[in-house]
Write a structure and sequence with these properties.
about 290 residues, alpha/beta, Purple Acid Phosphatase, chain A, domain 2, 2 domains, 6-stranded mixed β-sheet, 13 strands, about 30% helix
Length: about 290
């Protein structure tokens, strides 16, 4: 193979590090590293990580604050970690009759939020499907199996046609050495630590609406990071959990990351929303 072949492996995220690409292509690591650094400029990708949003039951103030940050942050990569749309209208759970909605109305709101993320100008956009999004497949399977394959979340949210990578529920995406998924099917207080044990690599999850950051090492001295960044939903509209419990456990927030493309490391920073304020790169947003 050649230097160009090794660069193609890196461009397509088929390997985690320059060293791995050099080994697979059989080229000198230092030469490849120099070429890769030149192609990447500073070699750092800025990542905006958006947690569970649950449109149309999102917190509009929190969402607008995150978009204000995003416009200044100018991410190279945007990741939505799951449950952009709640799919309340097709949930199998009992519904509040005063909280009626139709699926097309939910999707219309969610498409609007997706378009706002598009406007940030990221060169890579990753949409990870969550368990609420998966309600569409469950509903079709149980109620209208004839429509399976004809109706999809990708089409309803116009993901592919707007350049999004669509990651199905219970699967994962990767940026360098970092794995990203909605959940690992585990609950409880230590979900981030359990996700890290499951992947045995640095991982970001959603689903649990909490802000957690967990670092774990092994006997060789290598360390991995597990993180989740809260949610952007409105706790007043969450009718599936006692509000006191939700207020104590769930936190408004999001995350930013910095991907060193030469090493594959992603440096993660949780950004909690404190009384609808946030601090990113030394700037306060209100």
């Amino acid at each position: 193979m050649s230097i160009e072949a090794a660069l193609e492996l890196l461009r397509n995220n088929q390997v985690e590090t320059v060293a791995e690409a050099a080994r697979q292509a059989g080229v000198p690591r230092t030469t490849l590293s120099d070429r890769w650094a030149k192609e990447c400029g500073t070699g750092i990708e800025k990542i905006l990580l958006i947690p569970d949003t649950h449109a149309p039951f999102h917190d509009q103030r929190a969402w607008e604050l995150v978009m204000d940050v995003g416009r200044d942050f100018k991410p190279d990569v945007v990741v939505h970690l799951g449950d952009l749309v709640d799919c309340y209208s097709i949930s199998a759970h009992s519904k509040d009759p005063d909280r009626t909605s139709r699926l097309h109305e939910e999707m219309e709101v969610a498409r609007g939020l997706r378009a706002e993320l598009d406007s940030l100008g990221a060169t890579r956009k990753i949409f990870i499907e969550g368990n609420h999004c998966f309600r569409l497949i469950t509903y079709l399977h149980d109620k209208a199996p004839e429509l399976l394959g004809l109706v999809s979340l990708d089409e309803l949210l116009k993901l592919s046609e707007n350049g999004w990578e669509h990651v199905p529920y219970r699967q994962h995406a990767r940026i360098g050495k970092l794995y990203l998924t909605h959940d690992t099917g585990q609950g409880g207080k230590y979900t981030t630590a359990r996700a890290l044990e499951t992947f045995q690599h640095s991982v970001v999850i959603g689903h649990h609406h909490q802000i957690q950051y967990f670092v774990q090492g092994d006997a060789t001295g290598q360390h991995q990071v597990g993180a989740q960044f809260g949610w952007l939903g409105d706790v007043e509209k969450a009718d599936y959990m006692h509000q006191i419990k939700a207020r104590r456990s769930w936190s408004l927030g999001f995350g930013v990351g910095y991907h060193d493309r030469a090493s594959g490391f992603v440096y993660l920073q949780p950004v909690p929303l404190v009384d609808y304020t946030a601090c990113v790169e030394g700037q306060i947003y209100r």
